[in-house]
Amino acid sequence: MGTIKFHCFIPKVLQEMPIVRSHEIEYNWVSNAKDFYRDKELESKTTRCPGIFSILGSGWIHRTYQDILIETNGDGHSFSASVREDQKQLAKGTHVGDYVSSHSPEQLQMFKPFTSETLASIIKIQSPWFVEIPEGYTLLMMPIPYADDTRFTAATGLLRGNQFLNVQLYWHCLNSKEIIPAGTPLNQMILIKDNKVDYTLSNIQYPKEFLEDKFSKGTWTFTPEFFKE
């Protein structure tokens, strides 16, 4: 197996706000759930879900390294953004652009429907990160599943080879001033092996026997390591 390599053009970002493994991120709602079940001395139903904490603990998290102010005016299209530090100066070169910008409408907005609760402009976070993805693997770029912050949703995509780690955001606040604090998780990245898998379709004639057989073979197991104290 190869190694995925994350490179950063700004030394202090590498030191102070590196890309981290997903299981290192703590979410407020998880803490609230722990407190709820602990106070009521109940068994947590949340931790028994085989999907939630498995995905929350997979891959890596890309976070903001400085505060970002996003302002919208209610027209559903335009926004303004400001940050404290000029990324181009920090990166010492033109290979990295402004930390926050937008995509032109011709790239997606003109063709893809947007909900009325989503700004019809895609906010682009042009990060100082570059990734080398090992041969035979694909990097899935996806929104934070079960995120604390509901003001934005990261776009989904697949990367191969050598790429800049830019993040595109669908923005859900249409008439407000919002600050995304430094350290906010922007998106999650999961490495996927490029294997081709066949598939079949079948009818289950005897559901009870089928499920007993599958569960007895240990095909449905889950340990909520992410949720442990």
In words, what does this structure look like?
The chain is of the alpha+beta class and 229 residues long. It has a five-stranded antiparallel beta sheet with strand order 2-3-15-9-11, with no helix packed on it. A four-stranded antiparallel beta sheet has the order 6-7-13-10, with no helix packed on it. Strands 1-8-12 form a three-stranded antiparallel beta sheet. The protein has five helices and 15 strands. 17% of the residues lie in helices and 28% in strands.
Strand line-up in the sheet with most strands: 2-3-15-9-11
Question: In DSSP terms, counting alpha (H) and pi (I) runs of 4 or more, how many helices?
Answer: 5
Write down the overall mean pLDDT: 87
Q: Mind summarizing the main beta sheet?
A: 5 strands, antiparallel
- First-to-last CA distance: 32 Å
User: What value does the Rg take, in angstroms?
Assistant: 21 Å
Unreliably modeled segments: 222-229
Number of strands: 15
What coarse outline follows from CA principal-axis ratios? globular
Helix content: 10-25%
Instruction: Give, in order, the helices and strands.
Output: EHEHHEEEHEEEEEEEEEEH
Content of β-strand: 25-35%
The helix-and-strand class reads alpha+beta
